[in-house]
Amino acid sequence: MDIKVDKNTVIVFDLDDTLYNELDYLKSAYQSIAKSLDADGWKQLYSKMFSMYRSNINVFEILSEDFKMDKTELINLYRNHQPNIHLFEGVIEVIESIKSKSGKIGIITDGRSKTQRAKIDSLEILKYLDHIVISDEIGSEKPSFDNFKAMEKAISGMQYYYIADNLKKDFVAPNALGWKSVALIDNGKNIHSESNKYMDSKYLPNEFILSFSDINIV
After folding, report:
1. Class of the domain covering 2-20+87-217
2. Domain parsing of the chain, residue ranges
3. Does pTM surpass 0.90?
């Protein structure tokens, strides 16, 4: 799809499962926790943890029993680690193309401030961003209109785009506000995998893409 960009264009991205796979954050966190609990045998422990996760077993409950730790401490290790994550192929090219056309870039994401900002830092995209809206920082989660109005207030523009992945909550508000909406189709690794339940018109984006290579900035 072609997106015409100029100084009046604001392109906003979701973060998790849009710019990278959130499952990779989970893997990064599990590896960090495994290393802190068993420096010598962390790979075996990580293998066990990820297998339990895939089997819908409460990983932290088992670790809490095995290592005589409070679950809160394990959750904090998960949330506060510095993640080893990477952008999807093609993301940086799209971002740099937007900037070359004088477009503005934002992120609207749900989550805790420290966690989400650590992800943005690890992805090395902060220098490209004109504004970030994080639910924890404004006290409102998608699909609330407040998150998108906060972006409009921070960055003025004539045309706004929202590129995201979760049909349940990502497109209701921007669609109603007159934004152009684009859904990145699940690559099979998304944390939220129930898009089939949200095919009514109010949930649907204007466009679907398979990858960032489908986006042509003109």
Report:
1. alpha beta
2. 2-20+87-217, 23-80
3. yes
